[in-house]
Amino acid sequence: MYYYYLIMPVNKLSPLFSNSETIKCLYYNKVATSTEVSNLTGKSIPHVIKVLGELTKAGYVTVNGYASSSGGRKPLVYSLVADSHYILSVAMDQFSAQMVIVDMNNAFVTDTERYEFPINELTPDALIAYINEFLEKKEIARETIIGVGLTMPGFIDTEQNVNYTYSSIAGESLVGYIQQQISIPVFLENDSTAIAIAEQKFGVAAHIKNVMVLNLGWGIGLGMILNDQLFTGNNGLAGEFSHIPLFKNGKLCTCGKHGCLETEASLIAVTANARQGIKEGLTTSLANYPEINADIIIAEAIKGDVFSVKLISEAAYHVGQGLAILIHLMNPGAIVLSGKGSMVGKLWLAPIQQAINEHCIPRLTQFTEFKISDLNTRAQLIGGAALVVENFGKALEEKLNSIEAVT
Amino acid sequence: MYYYYLIMPVNKLSPLFSNSETIKCLYYNKVATSTEVSNLTGKSIPHVIKVLGELTKAGYVTVNGYASSSGGRKPLVYSLVADSHYILSVAMDQFSAQMVIVDMNNAFVTDTERYEFPINELTPDALIAYINEFLEKKEIARETIIGVGLTMPGFIDTEQNVNYTYSSIAGESLVGYIQQQISIPVFLENDSTAIAIAEQKFGVAAHIKNVMVLNLGWGIGLGMILNDQLFTGNNGLAGEFSHIPLFKNGKLCTCGKHGCLETEASLIAVTANARQGIKEGLTTSLANYPEINADIIIAEAIKGDVFSVKLISEAAYHVGQGLAILIHLMNPGAIVLSGKGSMVGKLWLAPIQQAINEHCIPRLTQFTEFKISDLNTRAQLIGGAALVVENFGKALEEKLNSIEAVT
DNA sequence: GAATACTTTTTTAAATTTTTAAAAAGTCTT
DNA sequence: AAGACTTTTTAAAAATTTAAAAAAGTATTC
């Protein structure tokens, strides 16, 4: 089992790289017929059938019987062999990392574990230790893991594999270092971008050509799907929705500028406003807590605390102001509320709509639909796994190279 | 000559449609070697050489001798036959239409004529009369014109071929009507989008993957090049930069909303501010005019009138505020100042930079370059012609169909 | 309820396209 | 001026697509 890749002649495997489009297709659709794969990959049916046959022989793909037909020959149904490979998804936010292992049917095959630490204190070696600990605990053979999807906040340059914001963990060449230490290919991506991928492939953004996916968390991230593909800008830094200069409130933002959207609309701003309100002696159930945080405000808002609802509504209205700009510029087919904050998506929706109605040309708004994510807190983990699938060919190749280097 | 298309068997021509990528490539590069065409179209060299041979035989392409080589066999240089076809470009703004005929080397082969009228009073029949008048005056055989590129301001849905803003001239099916009346295929596009195409293909935006092209005119239009291709949103309505809600000035915009960028930054706003200043008795050479307009203010600003410069600077600063948002969202490689207003591009640049410095995260600005168009007032006309080239295959097909219908 | 018409998928064979390799044509250095 | 190196073009092989036929169903009709 361990020597699987070694026994197989290298040049025998090479067609697999070019077949990664078919693998992606099956991963995102769970099951598919040859016609469906043909339509999705843009390859001809005879070619697709040949590829599927090869992949079946190689153990990546299996036939699941026949699908029904509206009249005509029943098509064979193909799917990936769920346990042929696994993916480790590592989803970080400012204060923790969540890990889970995903199979080739996009199913979580382990519990999700959370490791807590402030992100800017994390070292590569500490992260490696967490990953090793997790893998040993879950008793998944390292050789079956095709790649690690590492997703985190920050300005991430995916060409250079660098996180400019948190360079201690993902600075220059550190991704390469981690990859080498755990002997599994590692793919790095921004958290909001990962969430956008998840929503596009498995969420409410599926099959919409142009989508703005909001990551409602500590800040307000934005992942953009334009013309059915991820848009990350000229240097991978697009989507800094949080820091668009929108207010003349004089409030200093963490980015060093004044009046960013974040200063009025993030959960950090909401928490600050809550503290101010309590200090002023407002009637609110928040006053019963010794110390408050965003989770508490959200919880109380759901329970119906008027002040908490007002706080979130205000933030949401400001987000809506920003979205009005986005709609004018991008004319998107949909805007998706995702990320942690989407758990209370309906609380956000009304004030956002209000702001849009006030600030948008009606002719434009009619084309943009609002949707609330149903992936909940799993979005980033799913996106991280999809990131590895997107790079399946590359992952396989790197795995081969590393094994070749050992022999 | 007249029956050229009829003599040729229809199915003989069909490969030409699929060769339109090669034609586009030659049109945009003026001259190109087989290797260049191969790289640009993504087709293999043997295939490109075959296609070029066919096109040469059909009279579309000619060989221009050999290019120099940095070491190695000299490549053959191909170009389009300049007079094999012509394009009529019709560029409208709010008050006039400019027309010119362009050959297959992207050269203007006639003078540019201007027809004046308020755009919302123009009828399709009037436009048809202007076009016919122009064509007869220029003595260009109608059969050699492969298509008309019609570009104008307004919310244009390129799927439906409808201008929602000025529907009297380009409402439902009116484009089809014009096309039928003049027996030449017509292609409709937004003015700012046309300018963006022109800048990408022939201007300072060439070879940059992600570019924001500003159309500085009566309003402030925006055409976006994302991942090397035009982005027009889910319904062709993207780029409404003029109407992003940015101010709390209470000023009513033509769009019906308050506080649009246009209310502070357009030439209309500049003119209003100028009148106000004159009324207040400020010292300015503008006071010498019985009635002022944007052209006069620009002229006086160039001459050095302090008040005029201040007016334009203020507008430019506001444009810069909007651009700061754009940079955060899109992380563009370049921002191009184009359109009529770019004639005084340097006047705009300093205050825009000022605003960017104040409102943008420095890490982002370093990746975005500012450029001033060198296409001047020709940008929209060039873009209109390019629009026809982009649809060359379609144009040829429609021409064929219309001739077929006659026989 | 069997025969026929219609759909849809799969297979087969032919045509096209692309890739790979080799040959031709040229430049540059020593 | 010869040989090493580059680049384009041609030729042959490999891969992919297109078109057509065959296979396997479903629905309808008499």
Describe the protein's architecture and organization.
- The structure is a homodimer of 407-residue chains.
- With 407 residues, chain A is of the alpha/beta class.
- Chain A contains 17 helices and 15 strands.
- Chain A has a 5-stranded mixed sheet with strand order 6-5-4-7-10, with helices on both faces. A 5-stranded mixed sheet of chain A has the order 13-12-11-14-15, sandwiched between helices.
- The structure holds a DNA duplex (30 and 30 nucleotides).
Q: What is the structure about, briefly put?
A:
The structure is a homodimer of 407-residue chains. In chain A, 45% of the residues lie in helices and 18% in strands. Chain A is of the alpha/beta class.
CATH architecture of the largest domain in chain A: 2-Layer Sandwich
SS elements, strand count of chain A: 15
Basic shape of chain A: globular
Segments of chain A where pLDDT lies below 50 for 5+ residues? 1-14
Strand residue percentage of chain A: 15-25%
Whole-number radius of gyration of chain A? 23 Å
User: What oligomeric state is this?
Assistant: homodimer
| Backbone structural class of chain A | alpha/beta
Q: Major beta sheet of chain A, specifics?
A: 5 strands, mixed
User: What is the C-level CATH assignment of the largest domain in chain A?
Assistant: Alpha Beta
Total helical segments of chain A: 17
Q: Quick one: CATH superfamily of the largest domain in chain A?
A: ATPase, nucleotide binding domain
Specify the helix fraction band of chain A: 40-55%
Mean pLDDT of chain A: 88
How many domains would you count in the coordinates of chain A? 3
Distance between the termini of chain A: 16 Å
Q: What spatial order of strands do you see in the largest sheet of chain A?
A: 6-5-4-7-10
